[in-house]
User: What shape does this take?
Amino acid sequence: MQILRRRGWELPESEATPEAVFRDRRRLIQAAAAGSIAAAAWPVAARAATPEADPTADLYPGPRNEAYTLDRPLTPEEVATTYNNFYEFGSSKGIWKRARDNLRIRPWTVHLDGDVEKPIEIGFDDLVRKMGVEERLYRHRCVEAWAMAVPWSGFPMAKLVEFAKPLAKAKYVRMETFNDPDMASGQKEFWYPWPYVEGVTMEEATNELAFIVTGLYGKPVPAQNGAPLRLALPWKYGFKSIKSIVRFTFTEKQPKSFWEKVQGREYGFWANVNPEVPHRRWSQATERMIGTDERRKTLLYNGYGEFVAHLYEGMDRRKLFY
Assistant: This one.
């Protein structure tokens, strides 16, 4: 049961209403004739399919969980879906077209293994129907000092943990994305430690804010935003929110994440948002809202301290923020 919390900084709900979430959708017209032309066109048609072609499209938009509200307007959909980091496809912010056109998300199998009662393999479509879908309004803060506010759809990570049935000795969840250089050209860059790996503690994974994302703006999540399922940890810098996950491994050992391996002096395991602890190359005191000229003061834990500060009591505070 979710408990509605109202905080003093919240704006009226009308401020958080997404624009053009519900639009008329055209159904995919399927060709009846078979032949070489139809066969050659299939990869393009599959990528260009409308949401109705997605077997889970009927789950969206999910009911909004009113426990999570915003202190700022939503980022327009066309901005949030065209300003992306997705290093598997390249390093520019305009990588969204390449990711959209090349990421194949079906079939997609999710593996739950490691210190669990019994390893599980389950297709994405079956998993999302088993878990269900709700919508949450979250702030998202990138370590590069840009930010957005979006309506994610998905389910609490705690439900996935419960489904996996981890053993008592499991202390961490290690997550891994796909590894397919033929599909994702960025994975041919040998100086990166592919596949992308991230990790959280069991306490973080089962915190009420930790959210497995399957949708965005009332529709299945676009490829460039991490389809078919990604993580949202709104109190941490965005690189912790791993995209296109294929494996969740429960383990006693703290995972070493992708960016820790690349540059551990700048990107640590915890990566909690703190305006007072700068990145080694820039300040974190303020953030730029993408799609606007607006700069806002960065909030400790990205404004979610009441939910997560207790997780880090007694720990080295500076270490927690890089």
The radius of gyration is 20 Å. The longest helix spans residues 36-47. The mean pLDDT is 87.
